TrEMBL record:
Protein family according to the UniProt entry: Belongs to the peptidase U62 family.
Domain (Metalloprotease TldD/E C-terminal): residue spans on this chain: 232-446
Region (Disordered): 95-136
One Pfam family named in its UniProt record: PmbA_TldD_2nd
Domain Metalloprotease TldD/E central, residue spans: 119-224
Domain Metalloprotease TldD/E N-terminal stretches: 27-90
Coiled coil: none
SUPFAM superfamilies in the cross-refs: Putative modulator of DNA gyrase, PmbA/TldD
InterPro entries: Metalloprtase-TldD/E_C, Metalloprtase-TldD/E_cen_dom, Metalloprtase-TldD/E_N, PmbA, TldD/PmbA_N, TldD/PmbA_sf
Biased composition (Basic and acidic residues): 95-111, 119-136
Name assigned to this protein: TldD/PmbA family protein
Length: 447
């Protein structure tokens, strides 16, 4: 895979070509990634994969007209042709008063602390196979597990480089390691499955593969012989595996493009409480070894720690340059970059731990459910209406009373956020980390 210097040189050459063909301004973003993965099933090697990819995206501006184009052909002639085509496209594009590069005086100057995103460890296929086998063996050893969908181990590297025509030129790399296992329990129509998976930037931060496999097996066995829960309005607990998605919906509703197009359920809630005062949502793009850590965003602006929610009150919108211009605000360093115009994304997020454990959080629940898996996409980003298929465990008399499946949980995200309480079981190993979350007054219905 290419190094940062090579990626920066390619971007600079592409911008130079764009300016030569008549662009007033331009930026180029290069991405590269390589990965290896080994999968096993029932003790036998099932797949060995290696993938590598590189691409570079050019965005050009001719006045207030812009165009974007991407290639994986890095020969000088191809890059020159790409730049010429991009400028030609921009000249016939409609004018956009909000198009442009990031303000030069707001570009990142290298203030981020060391993020430690690159692991020198380079496990080979044999190492990956041993980890996958250890995970599957541990899952199959759990009493009640009758089959396996397999286990896998992977590792890889990635690189992102950004160069702009007004002087920004930076790159950063990252590594990843992961282990996962999927177990099956029961037989016939009564079969159930569950999984466990962990990812980390550094190999030493992964739990032992045996621990991951054993967790997959235990989760599977706990789901055997589910019932359909009794319907009605009741408290719902969201396991950390699925509770993170509730914060993901918040991020989508706070994204500048949704606000600018007036397609967010948070419109009209500026400066008002959305959550109880005990709930914060924190973003830390500088977390060492974080899965979404980054020193700068997709337009070259600094990424800085902030509170998306402070004592229940929503903070500033998450803005790239275009959405900030449309709203008459300053960009916040949340631009994400793909092949086209920049989007919006947040970095590492978490909801701090609450004051009590999961058992105490459900102690007063006469009838409720603990959700450990969600299905479907029944979320309306404009109204906040929420309805998703679910499975998990019934809560009766403040205690777990057995597995349940084939039901839905429904509500409205604004009402759900207003009734949210957090347990103290926060673990910081995901891109979005939350403890067990309790939401009162949701509607539960059997399938």
């Amino acid at each position: 895979m290419i190094d940062g210097a090579t990626a920066l040189d390619r971007c600079a050459s592409l911008i130079e070509a764009a300016r030569r063909h008549g662009a007033d301004a331009a930026d180029a973003a290069a991405r590269a990634q390589s990965s290896e993965a080994v999968g096993v099933r029932l003790g036998k090697l099932e797949e060995v994969e290696r993938s590598e990819g590189e691409g570079i995206a050019l965005r050009v501006f001719v006045g207030r007209r812009s165009a974007s184009i991407e290639t994986s052909d890095f020969t000088p002639g191809a890059l020159d042709d790409l730049a010429a085509r991009a400028v030609a496209m921009a000249r016939v594009a409609p004018e956009d008063p909000h198009a442009g590069l990031a303000p030069e005086d707001r570009l990142d100057r290298g203030e981020a602390p060391p993020l430690d995103l690159e692991d020198p460890a380079r496990p080979g296929p044999d190492d990956l196979r041993r980890r996958a086998e250890a995970a599957e063996d541990a899952a199959r050893a759990v009493e009640g597990v009758t089959n396996s969908e397999g286990a896998s181990a992977s590792c890889g590297r990635s690189l992102f480089a950004l160069v702009t025509s007004h002087g920004f030129a930076r790159a950063y790399g990252a590594t990843h390691h992961s282990v996962s296992a999927v177990a099956i329990g029961g037989s016939g129509a009564g079969m159930q499955r569950d999984y466990a998976q962990r990812s980390a930037r550094h190999l030493e931060d992964l739990p032992p593969p045996e621990e991951i496999g054993r967790l997959a097996g235990e989760r599977t066995v706990a789901r055997l012989h589910p019932e359909v829960p009794r319907g009605g309005r009741m408290p719902v607990l969201f396991d950390p595996r699925v509770g993170a998605s509730l914060i993901g919906h918040l991020v989508g509703a706070m994204a500048g493009p949704a606000i600018a197009s007036r397609s967010s359920f948070l419109l009209g809630r500026e400066g008002s409480a959305v959550f109880p005062a005990a709930i914060d949502v924190l973003e830390d793009p500088h977390r060492p070894r974080g899965l979404r850590s980054r020193p700068f965003d997709g337009e070259g602006l600094s990424c800085v720690p902030r509170k998306l929610v402070d004592r229940g009150v929503r903070g500033d919108w998450l803005l790239n340059v275009a959405s900030a211009s449309k709203l008459g605000l300053a960009p916040t360093g949340h631009a994400s970059r793909g092949a086209g115009a920049p989007g919006v994304s947040a970095s590492n997020l978490h909801v701090p731990a609450g004051p009590i454990g999961r058992a105490e959080l459900m102690a007063d629940i006469g009838e409720g459910v603990l959700v450990t898996e969600l299905a479907g996409q029944g979320v309306n980003a404009v109204t906040g209406d929420y309805s998703r298929g679910a499975s998990g465990f019934r809560i009766v008399g403040g205690e777990i009373a057995g597995p349940v499946a084939e039901f839905t949980v429904a509500g409205n995200l604004l009402a759900m956020y207003a009734r949210m309480h957090a347990a103290n079981d926060l673990e910081m190993h995901r891109a979005i980390n939350v403890p067990t979350l309790r939401v009162d007054g949701m509607t539960v219905a059997g399938a």
